[in-house]
Amino acid sequence: MQIALDNLYLNTARQICAERHVRAWLVGGAVRDLLLGVPVGDWDIAVERDAIGAARATANRLLADVYILDAEHDTARVIAADGTIIDFAGLRDGGIELDLTARDFTVNALAIDLHQPDQVIDLFGGQNDLAEGVIRAIAETSLTGDPIRLLRAVRQSASLSFAIEPQTAQWIKTHAALITQASAERVRDELIKLIGGRGCADDVLLLDGFTLLEHVLPEVAALKGVEQSLPHHWNVFAHTCRAIDALELLGTRWLGFDQADDGAMMMSEVIPPFAWDAVLLTLSPFADSLRAHLQAYEISAKRSIWHTLKWAALLHDIGKPTTHTVEESGRTRFFGHEDVGAKLAEARLTALKFSTDEIRRVMTIIGGHMRPHLLSETAVSRRAIYRFFRDTRDVGVDILLLSLADHLATHGPDLGQSRWVARLGLIEEMLTAYFMRREEIVLPPPLVDGHALMTALKLKPGKQIGALLEAIREAQAAGEVTTKEEALTLAKSMTSNE
Fold first, then answer.
1. DSSP states of 97-111
2. Among 28, 51, 61, 229, whose Cα sits 20 to 30 Å from the Cα of 364?
3. Going from the N-terminus, what domains does the chain have, and what CATH number goes with each?
């Protein structure tokens, strides 16, 4: 384990603690990841005393930032320039053994003395569980004492591809309702890691299997058993999971994201092969632009737009249970489910303390996710494209991507080639307008301003000016006016008809 000291940040922390004559241990997930041979981004260091002082000294030497997380419990965080996190925490009374006893799972209850790094302190058989690929709670109270660990068990099981051992699984199911006692922020952070990872549809099923889904995302759990008529191949809950799979497959096969797991790959076998060939043939020219768009970050939340899109896919049909109706013919309908779903998503994401920008984005995607379907029913006009992006702005791109996944998850193995090619043609036309003809159709530069309108037509300030400017811009996007003179003529005709 001498390799543990080959890291700049860890080596610096070790030197600082040696200079300050305090013992220090690398603990938790960092030790686990070292043993698994995977990259470590966050380092947790337990210090026998004055952890905050050690953190400050380490930050000074690394020219990094330092933040006091909990002064009462002697905990601080160092954040290096490349984003690496080094957390320092003071040991509880009783030393490293008590610290490890208080941890969650055996694979995380591991420590390495930074001054004797050739041995791993392992009190609960964590190394054996690592070798076996098992998540095992140290004790039942490890879960009940801090209920967020109920959710973390599922998240780490998914991220590590480990099984949850039977006794721990039973404890999770028995105490699942306790997750409501965990803070919204901590629940959010665990869910973010689940949804942001690859194969999150399987993770949603895992949450459901451990009866946690109904407590953390009750609107998604409510989709179970809600049936749909043709052309839907699955009920609403299964459709939602398949839509996530399809989105991840599009991201993997078309955009180059590492998102598809075994579950999503099974979905790829359900969908006829021509679907994927047609995507690459028709939409490949937009791959670079879409990657750049989806990898951008919401400034307030520091999470990618791709991540937010996955949340929208998860929540896009949560309005269906409350809008479910059955016609005399037996056909099920969900009138207005997109608007109801947007409101429900707003409430859930607000409760989970998501950022305002993320909530707005998810609401816009859900509220608009039926528009591509409506646009596909007739030949799309430049005016319709303009109105779509006027209402949705850059979120419109996300809506178009979700519409592809939604279409695949609607028809499944019954996907019709002509209908799919037509949908791809619509998306191609919309993306062409957004990325390649932006100033012509999506955001045409103004031909006139309000002052020019008022002067030429002898109008007073008011709402009428804004309405005229919007009408001119829409006509410009449609290719009906191209000069200032034509714009003024259009405005004059509109005012004379009032």
1. HHHHHTSSBGGG-EE
2. 229
3. 2-132 (3.30.460.10), 140-193 (no CATH), 217-442 (no CATH), 450-496 (no CATH)
